[in-house]
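User: My advisor, Dr. K., asked me to get a structural model of this assembly before our group meeting. I'm new to this, so sorry if the format is off. These are the inputs:
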Amino acid sequence: MPSTYTLIKGETLASSAASYSFTAIPSTFTDLVVRTSTRGTSGGWNSVILTLNNNNSSLYSVTWLQGDGSSATSNRQSSQTTMQLDRNTIPSQDTNLFNNTEYYIPNYLSTVAKPVSNFGVGDRNTTEAYIAAMAGLANITSAITSIKIENNTSNFVSGSSFYLYGISKS
Amino acid sequence: MPATYEPIMSTTITTSTVSFSLSSIPSTYTDLRLVLTYLAAGDYGWPSFRFNGDTGSNYSYTYIRGVGVSAGSSRTTNATKLELGGYQDASSTVPSLTIMDIFSYAGSTNKTVLFDYSSDSNGAGSTYRQVGLWRNTAAINSITLTRENWNFISGTTATIYGIKNA
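Assistant: The format is fine. Below is the predicted structure of the whole assembly, which you can bring to the meeting.
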């Protein structure tokens, strides 16, 4: 039986950048997984803006749950032009401190809307920490061929890494 | 390096059904991951799960969730199935995603599971992280998936992956 959790592309930034994109995603898998380890250049806690297929129409919505160590909050956005994920879990305050996040996109070749699951954490030890779990929806019915990951507040620092995996069910 | 993440079986629903099972799961892996992406006949419902056809009061679960603007946590004990959600989720055009990790599913102790449940329909949405327990020491050889309230419809897919630690 073949291995089905395959690295499509992985890269660590050699210099800071406002965004990172996976393009020309092959149509040979069933699901996609994106794993990132990032830090912002400034602005305190940063978030991620995700765009699929370079489509910036009002096709995105998201519901998020966030914990800050003392309380949990939840909220949502609808009819957005991008999908804001990783809500405030990306630190920029501390050298050598990165957040960790996973995005899961099932059935990315399907002809229906695409759900996205996101789970991210950022922890500054005794100072503060955030954890966020998010449900997103991209009402895009074509196959996903590109994923753009932007920092909503500043740039991603050098050393931030981005990995895209493909999962096959057969 | 050996392959450690392998598809065991996959089902795509072609006819509307309230329940279906994934059976004859081999005991040759360490952990299982079930990925369920589903469409449903109605938008107020949620999936539930049973192992090995057990309908006894042997399940418990605890969740933390965000539903719209409301965050909360709760638990249920001595349940007859593992239920997820409880609010609007998938519709006939908007799929929901459930990922269930089952740890040491072939071991001789009770079985712990971890759920990632994500559902958003541009107007309502919920995200859950949930831990579940099946108080049974038998190896898991089948999983029955049921949609509470409305049926699963065509386009629903469920895939079980086997994960090895060696």
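One thing worth pointing out at the meeting: The CA atoms of residues 46 and 148 of chain B lie 5 Å apart.

User: Perfect, thanks a lot.
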